[in-house]
Reverse transcriptase domain-containing protein (Pleurodeles waltl), 177 residues
Amino acid sequence: MFVLVIELLAEYVRKNPKIRGIPTPGDAKKEVKGTLYMDDVTLCTDGKSVQSLLEACKDFGKASGAKINVDKSQAKLFGRWDLCNKPLPFPIEAGLVKILGIWFGGPGSAAKSWNELLAKVKQKLGFWILRHLSIEGKALVLRNDALPVLQYVIQAWPLLANVAWAVNSMVFHFVWH
């Protein structure tokens, strides 16, 4: 039910001219104001628009009964934020921040995302290797269970050479074990 209701807030934020998003690379006319996935909401704005965004969330809460869980919320600041004249109601994260399972926010975030993913793929293949599958069965496991998790992270971070080598090594070991 929450998923249906939160889309109303997202649409309000998208259409609100007082709330500016983050410009997308390559096209200065497009901007990202947020992402939604199930009950995970990530909102993006600049220092001038943050109060308008918080007011929109407060107004939405009055109408829907939903409110920001300050204990589970955090802010990640990029660039100049001296234009934001009021304090934020939740903690400011100085280090990396995890959004929908992917790390962002500074040097090492891509490597950390890929390392976690490699551990997950290794665990999946370790489980399946105990099953003594045929070559066809192993191909099915690779295509449908182990490798699709790579697609998610590769949308945010480019595939690093050492990650490609590690995946190739894991797949080779899995297929020919």
Q: What stands out?
A: The chain has six helices and six strands. The CA atoms of residues 26 and 90 lie 32 Å apart. The first strand starts at residue 22 and ends at 24. The radius of gyration is 21 Å.
